[in-house]
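pinned: reference chain
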Amino acid sequence: MGFALKSELLAAALVCAVSGFGCRVEAQTRSAPDQSDAGVVSALANSSVTKSEQLRNRVVTAMHADPYLLDEHIEVTVAKGVIILRGFVLSAWDLREAVRVARKIAGDTRVVDELSIKEGGR
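pinned: its structure tokens
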């Protein structure tokens, strides 16, 4: 590291210290991103998928835990931040209960009901 670069780094650290800001000062020697940077970018890009999958799993788990709701024909998906319920239930009560459970878990997330009622059979 040359004298000029050391002086610039020292000056930058001094400015941060005097102004009350903590900062990390170091020389940037890499010119191109390495393999680990690609992994970080990929993880950040997939973070919304992970949140959607977590939300879907919570709704599915809550429906399955409800002792009165027959949820075996209900498919739960999350698309563009919206919970979608598809499939069929055996009564109007089941339909209302499925939507209620999904909304309880969803919080502020919108729930779309695309369920149908198939009375009298599986």
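why pinned: The CA atoms of residues 55 and 61 lie 10 Å apart. The radius of gyration is 26 Å.
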